[in-house]
Amino acid sequence: MLAALSIRDIVLIDRLDIDFTGGMTVLTGETGAGKSILLDALSLALGGRGDAGLVRHGADQGQVTAAFDVAMSHPARALLSQNDIDDDGDIILRRLQSADGRTRAFVNDRPVSASLMRDIGSRLVEIHGQHDERALVDPASHRRLLDAFGGLEAQAGEVAESNQAVRRTQRALREHEDRVEKARREADFLRSAAEELAVLDPRPGEEEELAERRQAMMRVEKIAGDLGEAVETLNGTASPIPEIASLMRRLERKSEASGGLVDQPVHLMGQALDLLEEARGELEAAFRKTEFDPRELEASEERLFALRAAGRKFSVPVDELADLRKRMEADLADLDAGEEKLGALKAALKDAQAAYDAKAAALSEARRKTAAALEAAVAGELPELKLEHARFIVEISSDPEARAPEGIDQVEFWVQTNPGTRPGPMMKVASGGELSRFLLALKVSLADKGSAPTLVFDEIDTGVGGAVAEAIGIRLARLATQVQVLTVTHAPQVAARAVGHLLIAKDKVDAERVATRVAPLEDHARREEIARMLAGAVITDEARAAAAKLMAGT
């Protein structure tokens, strides 16, 4: 329910804080006191259209904050959760309206778009009035309300899921038909290309492997000559190793005669021979590693050039040739097996449509039975609202070929105001006063089914009096046992039925300015206000007595 409303600098309101209770609360006051301003402010907090004219003269901006205490399972909390907004406590909607026309919206102090605030607000409050074009007078909501009245939401959900299955199958069929048609147009090219790629048999990463192998062989080819020449130098006829060995042996034989003079040179020459032998071995090993088949280099180059030529031909990177081959082969498979798969998909679509049609037909039948029950419930409320000759009609038109997520039915609430007149849509046929009473009868019949937790009625008793006003008051009070009801009224019979009473009045702030004030009324003050509503400007004892009787009668 709406727990509190705080308004700052909106039209005639400079500062206003109102606490609300459950049940039925009436707002009364003289014409022009500011009741409409209060509702305009609430509408702004619910995401309604902003207007620079709402800002109080002399202020830079106005602000409205509405706090709601709702159950943790309420649908509005799901919206908060979906948008990463904290929803542990009250839901607080705050709207800033600047004098330059700009607005800013906040939900639980989180900046949000006006559209999101409007979506949340619509789940928290419904505002009904003679000229209101939302809520019950919006045909788009009538099917949902009918389903809520009959408890058909789960059945409607199954129809929606079945509709999704039909749509998924239709989409799969269209996509397959497109692929088959495309493959058919390109069949010759596809077969030739697929065969060419099958012969080539490209592998992902193959281009890089070949390029690296080719570079390695080219590097080896360049150094192989030098390595061969070095090996030949140490192993051939010009090798210094035999000559050094021979010289070293001659010096060794003269070692004793030299008195040790050649020992060190001989020792170093031995080390040199050892190192030369080691170098020869390493050179031979390195040279063996450079040995490769020139045909391998040629083959690698040919393979690399063939892959790159195919990439250019088919306008794809070389690494994507393998995937291209798979796609082409899949397209050819679709073409070859296309009729069989098309037949299977068409059969699946037929089955899905049959399943949907059965569920939608059952839902449509249930809706028609529910429509009769709703018509009877509303009809029971009309006589005491002085609409005893009127009829409320749930107009259902069905198109089995429509197959919409909501079913095959279009639902709209119609009325016939008098016998012999042509029935028609409620908003177009009923007058302002009649529309208000039809809405009240409908809302009472729906009770808390498909309803926001707070209902606001704006002067729905205008133009009626006596017994009709009494009947309206009784029905509003009955409705308030299910949801919170706020009603702006000029009818004392309605005001007497409330459990809460707020008086709207204008106070003079200074010589040049007035401001709207709201005061809760209890006991004596409440009786005085109801007496004023009965008597007018001069409150008589008879009016006070009548007011007391009305209050006692509740």
Can you tell me about this structure?
- The protein is built from 18 helices and 15 strands.
- Helix 5 packs antiparallel against helix 12 (338-381), helix 14 packs parallel to helix 15 and helix 17 packs across helix 18 (541-553).
- Strand 6 and strand 7 (110-112) form a beta hairpin.
- It has a domain at 155-361.
- It is an alpha/beta fold and 554 residues long.
- Helix content is 54%, strand content 18%.
- The strands form three sheets. The protein has a six-stranded antiparallel beta sheet, covered by helices on one side. It has a six-stranded mixed beta sheet with strand order 8-12-13-3-14-15. A three-stranded antiparallel beta sheet has the order 9-10-11.
- The protein starts with a strand and ends with a helix.
- The model has no long low-confidence stretch (mean pLDDT 86).
- The longest helix has 44 residues, at 338-381.
Secondary-structure blueprint of this entry?
Layout: E1 2-10, E2 13-19, E3 24-28, H1 35-45, E4 61-68, H2 75-82, E5 91-98, E6 103-107, E7 110-112, H3 114-124, E8 125-129, H4 142-150, H5 153-185, H6 187-200, H7 206-235, H8 241-253, H9 263-289, H10 294-314, H11 321-336, H12 338-381, E9 391-398, E10 409-416, E11 424-425, H13 426-429, H14 432-446, E12 454-458, H15 466-479, E13 484-488, H16 492-495, E14 500-510, E15 513-520, H17 523-535, H18 541-553
